[in-house]
Write a structure and sequence with these properties.
The protein contains seven helices and six strands. By secondary structure, the protein is mainly alpha-helical. It has one domain. The strands form three sheets. Strands 1-5 form a two-stranded antiparallel sheet. It starts with 13 loop residues before the first helix and ends with a strand.
Amino acid sequence: MRRDVNESHYEQSPRRERIGRAARLAPDTLLASRPESRFRIISCMGDREAIRTAKVQGRRTLHFNRIEDALADVNALEGPTRAGTARCLGNWTFGQILGHLAAWVDYSFDGVPMKKPPFIIRLILRPMKRRFLYKPMSAGSNIPRVPGGTLGFEPLPVEDGLARFRSAFGRLQRETPALPHLIFGPLTRDEWVNQHLRHAELHLSFVRTV
């Protein structure tokens, strides 16, 4: 493991390590402090090494201003996907991507099934809220100590993924989450919507027509 000059003289305390790691986090990775591991994808892609998504070339450049923009993009991809003329450039199928995006919208309303990050990390990241909500998210990072690097990415048929995505984003059109954000605390409606639009831009950028 790489050691800083100061670390050559003493071992860092656990608290010092947590503060140092949090200060280096990119806010658009939501505590994704380590690069994606080379775990093996078995459930949806066969027994092979995962693609390092941070290195993927040919992704689409997307920017959604409204929930309707994300819904329209998914609608435009539905036909090519069914016709076999759409391609997913990363590790997940189109159904998985849609299910994952839907899951995180639902978590905003119903609660995230994981523990809150330590208070010191939340404190350090909160001033970066605007960048996280309004700048593009980065690909290729995992949430530490979460199997698979994130939540809600179970394999799904396209039909199920489409239904879940439309249901969740339709709910977001009609309602505003009342729960506080896991990192940033209470958010306005505009902030909640923009978080999920940035998330959708990231994952849907890996789906393109041939």
